[in-house]
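Aim 2 progress update. The chain analyzed this quarter is reproduced below.
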Amino acid sequence: MSKVCKVTGKRPLSANNVSKANNKTKRKQYPNIQKKRYFIPELNKTVTIKLSTNGIKTIDKYGLLSYLNKKGMSLADVI
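Predicted structure tokens:
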């Protein structure tokens, strides 16, 4: 399962674990990716999209299709 948000484009970041002795080891910081189902009344179907929690909040505020149109994306880009 890829750790990329389909709407916002958030990806894993690279960072360091830093010990008390200031030793640094590489680690990943993953975005909070969730699977979310949305019903689209215009198409009369349900779609499942992998989104970050920030993307879920944004879609809840604006609506799925209106937000995708605002970003210049289509539904086929996120499915």
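The chain has a mean pLDDT of 94. The CA atoms of residues 59 and 67 lie 7 Å apart. These observations will guide the mutagenesis experiments scheduled for the next reporting period.
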